[in-house]
Amino acid sequence: MMFALLAPASAQQFVSIKGEGVNLRAAPNLRSEVLWELGSGYPLKVLARRGSWVQVVDFENDRGWVSRRLTSSRPHSIVKAPRANVRSGPGTKYRVLRQAQYGEVFRVVERTASWIRVRGEDARTGWIARGLLWGVGRK
């Protein structure tokens, strides 16, 4: 009867971690093994829900459970390429402001079909090509 316990998540729903040092667990309870510790804003795709827990997967396909109260619907993304140019506008003709590294997390500010405007930890914004990021879902 596992089907009755797990409610499927809506298509491509993403959440982000609220706070620092949030545990990704092997099962939906506080006694289960801690698989990873996640930082603020870390994006996760929701796979299922069970009570006050959500089953999630990250950009490297690591799966686990997180308490729903430790997540937010505020959109974040993570760089999935070795490097990503952060540009002054949404296109390759715009100036490169800096390079972001694999695994760097950004707050999503705005979206177009091909570009995402992001805000980094330093509060500065820029644009990254959508294909270099994970966690942004569909437009």
From TrEMBL:
InterPro entries hit by this protein: Cell_Wall_Dynamics_Protein, DUF1058, SH3-like_bac-type
Domain SH3b: residue ranges: 74-137
Record-linked Gene3D superfamilies: SH3 Domains
Protein name according to UniProt: Peptide-binding protein
Lineage, top ranks: Bacteria, Pseudomonadati, Pseudomonadota, Betaproteobacteria, Burkholderiales
